[in-house]
Design a protein that fits this description.
Shape: elongated
Strand order of the largest sheet: 6-5-4-7-8-9-10-11-12-13-14
Distance between the termini: 215 Å
CATH architecture of one domain: 3-Layer(aba) Sandwich
Number of helices: 10
Largest sheet: 11 strands, mixed
Number of strands: 14
Structural class: alpha/beta
CATH class of one domain: Alpha Beta
């Protein structure tokens, strides 16, 4: 019995060491299927590449769709693209085209998209003009970042605030400050309620001329400064015509009244000055005050306007001689006849 079992074990071991014909055929079939799949995939890819290469000449840009343009025409945008005829849509570099479009100051933002087989889609956002810049005998439209959009060649422009520059080399920063002041004026409703508004660029900051009134504003805090000006405007108007109003100081508003069209010093003030110079060798403090032009100062918004008037000149001047007192006269001597008549009466 034991020997029989051992033989059986040996026989079964030999059978396990060999592969059956069925398993071998299954592996061969699986290998052939994989090879066929890979080969078909390669053929498919090569076919697509061949088709693309064959039809590449038919994928040229034939149509350009432009949206979002109001000031610029479609032709203006296409001119900025600088795309030659026959340009292939697949090989077109959108980042290069976008950079060309952004070089136009009117185009603030842009997005591009290819639409097969032959269309380029362009969507732009235009810059909005905020003011007219008068500079170097020319007029330009400017946008909120201080960039010049284009030169205005006619006078048919819609109402816009005016920025005036006497220098030909004002930078974008100063123009941008003026735009920020214009935005504050717009939020306060001053632009719509006044007949004319003009901003002037200066080294100490922008000035504004509102309906002929010159107002020195300076840099920054535009909403706060305009609020103070609006609150004090009724009091300032009581002072009459003004040469300028100064808002550059936090705790006060300085108003300079308009002076008549004459010399700064009157003849009387000159006489006072000459008298003081003759006596002391330099003009006195009262003379300096007298020769200064009047300045009205509003100390705080809660206080009423105060006017500092020029000091009156001294009454005595070098040109007026003091009146000499008359000498005492001796009584006249009586004549001899008068003495004799007096003795006769006695």
């Amino acid at each position: 019995m034991r020997s029989t079992n051992n033989k059986r074990v040996k026989i079964s071991g030999k059978r396990n060491g060999k592969q059956s014909p069925h398993k071998r055929s299954s592996k061969i079939l699986l290998f052939l299927k994989g090879a066929a799949l890979i080969l078909s995939l390669i053929i498919f890819i090569l076919g697509i590449a061949f088709a693309v290469n064959l039809s590449a000449h038919n994928l040229n840009v034939n149509d350009i769709e432009v949206s979002g343009n109001y000031h610029l025409s479609k032709e203006d945008v296409i001119r900025n693209l600088n795309i030659n005829r026959g340009t292939n849509l697949l090989t077109l570099e959108l980042n290069v085209v976008e950079a060309r479009l952004r070089s136009n100051p009117w185009i603030k933002d842009v997005s591009l998209r290819k639409q097969m087989p032959d269309t380029l889609m362009i969507k732009i956002k235009e810059a909005a003009p905020k003011a007219l810049l008068y500079q170097n005998s020319s007029t330009f439209l400017v946008e909120e970042e201080g960039n010049m959009l284009e030169e205005v060649m006619n006078e048919g422009t819609a109402f816009l605030p005016v920025i005036r520059s006497d220098s030909a080399e004002k930078n974008k920063k100063e123009i941008k400050e003026a735009i920020q002041l214009i935005d504050a004026l717009d939020k306060k409703g001053i632009l719509s309620s006044r007949e004319s508004v003009e901003i002037r660029l200066n080294s100490y900051g922008p000035d504004m001329v509102v309906d002929g009134a010159v107002i020195k504003v300076g840099y920054g805090n535009y909403m706060e400064k305009l609020a103070r000006w609006e609150e004090l405007e009724p009091e300032v108007s009581k002072l009459g015509p003004t040469s300028y109003i100064d808002l550059r100081f936090r705790d006060r508003v300085i108003v300079k009244p308009l002076q008549p069209a004459e010399t700064a010093e009157t003849a009387e003030a000159k006489a006072v000055k000459a008298s003081a110079a003759a006596q002391t060798g330099k003009p006195s403090e009262s003379v300096k005050t007298a020769t200064l032009e009047g300045i009205a100062t509003v100390a705080k918004p809660a206080e009423t306007a105060k006017t500092i008037k020029p000091a009156e000149p001294p009454k005595t001047t070098a040109t007026v001689k003091p009146v000499q007192t008359a000498k005492k006269t001796k009584p006249a001597k009586k004549s001899k006849k008068a003495k004799r008549s007096k003795k006769a009466k006695k």
